[in-house]
Amino acid sequence: MKIIDVLIQQLRKQGDKADLLALPPSAILWTDKDAAWQPAMPLLKAAMPELLELGDYNPAQRTGPAVWLKCVIAGLANPLETDKVPVIYLPGVSRRELRAIESCPGHLIPLAELQYRSCWWATPNNNRDWSLTAFLANAAIGLELDIAKDKTTQATLAQVLEPLLEADASSLQGKRITSAELQALVVEDPIRDLLHWLDNPAIADSWQPMRLAILQQYCQKEYGLTAESGSRTTFLAKLCEQPGPVWSALWTRFEDMAERLPGLLKQLETVQPLALALNPDCYLSLALEEEQQLANAFSAMASKSDLEVDAEITQLHQQQAGRAESLWSRLGYTVYANALEHLAILVSLKNKPFGGPDLDVMASAYQREFWQLDYAALQAMACAQHDSQRAVIDGVLSVVYTPWLEHKAEHFQHLVKQLGYQRRDRDIEEPAAAGYQAASQVVFFVDGLRFDVASEFVKSLAADYSVQLSAQWSALPSLTATAKAAVTPIRDLLDGDVDNSNFIPKVYSSGSDLSSTNFKTLLQQQGWQYLDGVETGDPTGLAWVQTGDLDKAGHKEQMRLPSRIDDILSEVRSRIDGLKQAGWQHIRIVTDHGWLWVPGKMPKATLAKNATSEQTPRCAILKSTATSEQVTAPWYWNNHVHITFAPGISAFRAGLHYDHGGLSLQECLTPVIDIH
């Protein structure tokens, strides 16, 4: 991994830190009193569209005064074309200056308030600015480079910051880094300099004369061209054409650096092959033309029948084979080609028979194969980068996926109505309850971890751990208030009030609703540790952990949820790794419920007026004197309380893509992941 990738990763991790209200930070504040990082800003801005810099007003370079910066992050001026948390780089500013509001310099006062809604990027132990040496040598970050402390090396470090950031970290680890090694980064890589010049010719104005002279000599010798404005067009044409080994080598290096060369990519959008291209995959212009054709085809599918669309997707997938693995795919230019890969999987599965005479048979088939269909739908939508693309993919999924989803939900509800719901008896032995008294065990709760998402997550865990995936039925209704309590170690201390109107069980001994406070108290009384934040506790005992709120993201993001799943699971994975490193032997991941994600939105269902005492989009508590035409089932915590469910994939509230609490395989079949 390149050093710049580690730096960007560390910066963006700050954006995952929510406040007490679970809100993301408004910005990440990066103070740098010595302006040590400023020479690398052009390179970093090319790789981070969310990076802003305090300075003179220059919107094209994402630089401006404090008032302008606040307007940008508020979306009032030059809005950022990214959903990442903005990073505000503050050269010449210390954290202490910004925090001391009364004595804060006038030009910084507009930013002083922002610190209460933002987070700082600072050293973890003493909250100081990250110096170059501190970042490169820090063990917690993982680079651990051995940088010499002499003045010459430190001065050279600042001079070669840009090429240093682009160096492979592994090539520098395990050896003493002096000024000689740092200078070699400049003089030994003219290909990198050529690509940066092609990306932005003005960058050469800031180079030392020696560096520019080496580049010119190299270009004349290898390509017969000089790095001057008149030859840039020729360079770009031959870069795509690759008429010889030196040009192929340049292309290979371009592939490695492409994410950080936005100016060069913009130029390549217009480079057309002069004749029949020998390397058509190397022309971004051709890839964009194919992508537009695919976008038009997708848009037209929304008005066709599912049989027509199934056949068209299969045909298009055969024609577009390989595009999803191309460089342009990696760079985000082929949204619809990438989505097509997942749509083809969906279509291949949805026409297979899937049902069964009872819930267990249906669940077994889903665990074996059909979870991939739901996951393919999510992945197709996750390919989209903005809402206009999501609307196009939503139109396709509404034709090929939503009817299948509705049909399977109706079959599931028919089985429940005919045979009952397996988990209505609280005395049955369940996977989440079995083995709770083992030593060195963490029960790890992830809210809304749907079975298909968990199945894919298990694949990544299996690379490093011994992992076993099983399933259990959610408590009814499949709402957090009801179902989370059912997978806790204190389940046997709870019951439900016959007059319940909020789906929350009560603590049997006190009659009070289960709250976060008395939940922690009961855990402690039963010998369980509650580990908050990044706490690791005593790994010889028992512990409860909860991280990763897919449910909250679903309710908030709705159609955009698929784009958030990987980030949330990354947080879960990080927490798992920390617990295992601390010595915990067994981690059992449980969840409360799954969810429905419905392209085209859930149809509206209605209930008789005054028939329910509490209603959510997918279910409602029936009053004792009321009846319902819909499927009903007893509440998990009290069989005398009856729940009525919205039919199929409908909801008692209009306008939803995401919700849960109803009766469907996706909501009720939940994963249990055992990690050893």
Count of helical stretches? 28
Helix content: 40-55%
* General shape: globular
Fraction of residues in β-strands: 5-15%
Parts with pLDDT < 50 across at least 5 consecutive residues: 424-434
Number of strands: 21
Number of domains: 5
Mean pLDDT across the residues is 90
Tell me the span between the first and last alpha carbons.
28 Å
* Sheet with the most strands, sense and barrel status: 6 strands, mixed
Indicate the radius of gyration in whole angstroms: 29 Å
Helix/strand class: alpha/beta
Report strand order across the widest sheet.
9-21-14-8-13-12
What does this structure look like?
β18 (632-635) and β19 (638-645) form a beta hairpin. It is built from 28 helices and 21 strands. The radius of gyration is 29 Å and the shape is globular. The longest helix has 24 residues, at 359-382. The strands form six sheets. It has a six-stranded mixed β-sheet. It has a five-stranded parallel β-sheet with strand order 3-2-4-1-5. It has a four-stranded antiparallel β-sheet with strand order 16-17-19-18, with no helix packed on it. Helices cover 42% and strands 13% of the residues. By secondary structure, it is α/β, with parallel strands linked by helices. It starts with a helix and ends with a strand. It has five domains: 3-185, no CATH class; 190-276, no CATH class; 285-419, no CATH class; 439-596 and 667-675, Alkaline Phosphatase, subunit A (3-Layer(aba) Sandwich); 600-658, no CATH class.
Keywords:
676 residues; alpha/beta; 5 domains; 6-stranded mixed β-sheet; 5-stranded parallel β-sheet
